[in-house]
Each structure stands twice: as C-alpha cells, then as structure tokens.
Amino acid sequence: MGSAHLSPAFEATTLGIMVVIIVLDLLYVVRRPHVPSFREASIWAIFYISLGLLFGVVLGFVANWQVAGEFFAGFLTEKSLSVDNLFIFVIILAKFRVPPRNQPEVLMIGIIIALVLRGILIVLGAAAIERFSWVFYLFGAFLIYTAVRLVSGHGDDEEYRENALIGTLRRFLPIHDEYDGAKIRTRIDGRTMFTPMLVVILALGSTDLLFALDSIPAIYGLTQDPFIVFSTNLFALMGLRQLYFLLGGLLDRLVYLPYGLSFILAFIGVKLVLHALHENTLPFINGGEHVTVPEIPIWLSLSVILVTLAVTTVLSLTVGAARAPHGAPHHPEIPHDGVAPTEDAEVMERIDDLTRYDPPSPTSSS
Asked: What values do phi and psi take at 216, rounded to 5?
C-alpha cells in the first residue's frame, strides 16, 4: 500500500499471511459450525490479540519504533471501537434469530465484507489526504462531533433499524422467512429463494461500514501510513468473532466504555485539528500560512489511549457493576455468566425455535 517505511515485499508478505489466516478461520467455522465454548473463544481471542502485538514488535525491528508506536496506538483504538461494534452485532443476531450454531459463520462472513468495504474507505481517505491537506480539519471536526454524540446519545440505539441497503434488498430479491442451515439460497416449492442469512450478513457488513466512518478518521489521526491504517483495522477485526462469544455477558457491564471511547475520539479529533493547523494551506486561516501550534507525539497518544481504556474498564467492572440493578437482563443468546452456550441437548432443542424470524410486514414499513 505504499508505506514509506516498509518494503513492498514485506507488505505483500504480511498481507498474504493475514489473508491465509482469515481464509483458514473461515474454513474452520464453515466445516465445523458450532458455538465456541468460553475456553475456545478465550484461546482464539488471546491468539489474535497476541498476533497483533507481535506484529507491532516486528514493525519496530523492520521499520522503526515510531512506526511501531503508531501501530500500537491504532490497534488499541480500533480494537476498542470494534468492541463497541459488538453491541450492535448482538442486537442484529438477536433480531433475526440466527441459530446459535450458525452465528460464528455469519459473523466471519460479515467481518470479511466489512474488511473489503473498509479497504475501499482507506484508499479513498489516503487519496484525499495526499491531495487536500485541509481534509484533516474535516476528520477532526467529525471525530469531535462523534464523541459528543456518542456520550449524549448513548443508550438510544437499543433497537436495530434496517438501513436503506437492507430495505432495498427486501424489495427486489425473493427472500424467504426461514433459515436453511447456513445456506444463503434455498429452493422452496421448486423456486430458488434467498434465506434470511443473506440479510443478516449484509446487515453486519453495512452496519460495520457505518462504524468505519468513525474509526477510519480516528486511525488517520494517529498515522498517515495507509499500510498501518489497513493492518490495524485488519488485526482489530480478525478476532472480533471470538470476542463476540467471549465478552457476551460482559458487554452489558462495560457501561463506561462509550465514555472512554468518546474521550479517545475527541482527543484524536483535537490532534487532527492541531495537525491541520500545522500544515494549514487554507487562505482564510492565518493567510494560508502554517500555524505554529504544538503537535501531539505518538507516545502521548498511546499513553492517553491506554490509560483511558484501563480506567473505563476498571470503573465499569467496579463502580458500574455496583450501580447496576440486580438481575439486569442480558442478551438471550449469550448467558450472563460469560460462558457461551454449547451444543448440548437444551440448546439443540431451542434451535428449531430460533430458525424462524418475523420479517417486518409491508404495512408497518410504510
């Protein structure tokens, strides 16, 4: 992707290895559809997080530790934002009543779609930054706006609402109201129809694209290297499927996470505005000359992100847990004890009830 600090051979090799890992992960969930146990999800989540941290160390030796610091800051930011994505993932899978044994496969395919869409956004963002330095003003202002909206509007999106893409899909494609395992297409009375699985996968991918509108400017506030930007997004999303099952009941307890993410986004937004002022070319600001302002070094950005995530997590699990009402409801598919359901008799008996969802009636959408 044209990094100034890394050779094309290193970039190609790295991306090739990551693609192989994603393909193997997809083949694993396709050939062995099941809900991972808490132990299995923990092992894989630790593996992917360790893989990302190891890659940052490799960058330090191959390039320099400035580049490694940018990756670590970006990786932590994107990972924390991806955890916030899990809240809407939980809602989507619950709304469409995706069978537990098919959830890993659905999540994996949705994440791959999200990676492709994010890759397009990253390329567009890099092109815009290269041609127009003032785009940092827009990125910074958007992140600050997003930070304010995240705090003031937290809790308003408890119900998933279909976006325009899904609504258009329903109007033009024959979509049946029952699942057929993990198939996207099936035959009903001799007629080929799509299953709700198609809607679920596209809902996950397109919804994550909306989250990318926040995360892409955030990562560009930490590094302008397109390869680092893409690799941080890739590593952040690679273990998202495992985190979904691992953090199940814990998601409800991370009550202060949105506030921490809001502070991080606002901090990066200010950093972007300062960078834009330093590189200023707009004629109505300081006569088109650069503005002498302090720039935030990467070590300070990394420290702020680490401390913010640590503080909000500890507060959520201590103060937040103490203030939460006793017996607060948790997501129905992931028990509040933090242990994902396995394919025991009880779960298998519930699968038949979960393989049908109630599509919105035409009258209710009008």
From this structure: -65, -50
- Cα distance between residue 77 and residue 187, in whole Å: 44
More confident residue, 228 or 98: 228
SS3 110: helix
**Nearest partner of 51 among 23, 79, 83, judged by Cα:** 79
Q: What is the pTM of this model?
A: 0.72
Helix or strand holding residue 336 (H, E): none
Pairwise CA distance, residues 41 & 253, whole Å: 19
Q: Domain boundaries in the chain? A: 8-323+333-340
The DSSP secondary-structure symbol of 253 reads G
CA separation for the pair 333, 98 (Å, rounded) = 9
pLDDT in tens, 208-220: 777 777 778 888 8
pLDDT above 50 for 265: yes
Residues 35, 343: contact at Cβ < 8 Å?
yes
Tokens of 45: 């989540």
Tokens of 117: 């869409």
pLDDT of residue 325: 53
Rounded to an integer, the average pLDDT of 214-231 is: 85
pLDDT digits (tens, 9 = 90+) for 114-127: 778 888 888 888 88
Q: Provide CB contacts within 8 A for 116, sequence distance 6+.
A: none
User: b or e along 193-204 (b: 16 or more beta carbons within 10 Å of the residue's beta carbon)?
Assistant: bbbbbbbbbbbb
The DSSP-derived string for 133-154 is: TTHHHHHHHHHHHHHHHHHHTT
- Tell me the pLDDT tens digit for each residue of 327-366: 444 443 443 333 333 333 333 343 334 334 455 444 444 3
Residue type, 302: L
- DSSP assignment of 50-83: HHHHHHHHHHHHHT-HHHHHHHHHHHHHHHHHHH
The one-letter amino acid code at 235 reads F
- Helix 103-131 to helix 8-31 angle (10° resolution) is 160
Distance CA 56, CA 35 (A): 31
Return all residues near 259 (Cβ < 8 A) that are at least 6 apart: 151, 154, 312
Beta strands at 185-188 and 191-194: parallel, antiparallel or unpaired: antiparallel
User: How far is CA 36 from each of CA 205, 334, 340, rounded to the nearest angstrom?
Assistant: 22, 11, 7
